[in-house]
Amino acid sequence: MAARDTGEVFGPRMTLFADVLSIGLATAAACLPLVTVPAALSTACAVLRGAGVGQPVTAGRYFALLWRRLRAGDLVAGAVALAGLLVFAADVALAGAGLPGAPGFAVAAAVIGAGAVVVGLRACGRPESLTDWRAAVRGAGRDAVADVGGSGLVLLAVATAALCAWMLLPLAFLAPGPLALALTSVDVRRSAAVLPR
Question: What pTM value is reported for the model?
């Protein structure tokens, strides 16, 4: 991070924080159709990744990149994510209905759901998600197993975003920005760890 310029009230870290919040608002707006959630989050990660190489982090750049990359594969990825969420909700409802073996089933469903969330979100944080979801999901699956610490950080980021949204509902519209920053950071951290020294 560069030092604060003379006369500048806020330093570069505060500027990045403001950029993350504006990207969060843009991402929340782009997620409203629900099937666009993976594409919107992936685009947010790409825009935030660009900050490391001097590219502007603006809502305008976000929407331009989202519009250019939005394709049928992105909508299919969103439909698959939405279907998975509905199946998980149905499983939780069945477990809560008092069926035999419900406690064990609830635990298994929670583990599988957490694993799916980690792989899906890590896929959004990967650069390949801009062009090839299958490659992004394969890479995210490998990373989820090989980098357990990073997977824990992803779950912690999701829990933090959910807690903030639960505590104060308007924060739900800002939460995608810090979540995208966390996903990007976990992927950059993993990429740096596997580079040969």
Answer: 0.87
C-alpha torsion sign, points 95, 96, 99, 100: positive
H or E, element range at 74: helix 72-96
What is the reported pLDDT for 14? 78
Contact predicate 128/114, CB 8 Å:
no
If you write DSSP's letter for every residue of 27-52 in order, what string do you get?
Answer: HHHHTTTSTTHHHHHHHHHHHHHHGG
pLDDT tens digits, residue range 16-59? 888 899 999 999 999 999 999 999 999 999 999 988 787 888 88
What's at 187, amino acid-wise? D
Give the other-Cβ count within 10 Å of 138's Cβ. 15
Cα 142 to Cα 58, 72, 88, 151, 153, distances in angstroms? 32, 25, 23, 11, 16
22, 29 contact by CB (below 8 A): no
Provide the angle, in degrees to the nearest 10, between the axes of the packed helices 59-69 and 37-50. 130
Query: Over 80: is that where the pLDDT of 140 sits?
Result: yes
List of residues 6+ apart from 35 with CB closer than 8 A: 75, 78, 79, 82
Cβ atoms of 133 and 123 within 8 Å: the answer is yes
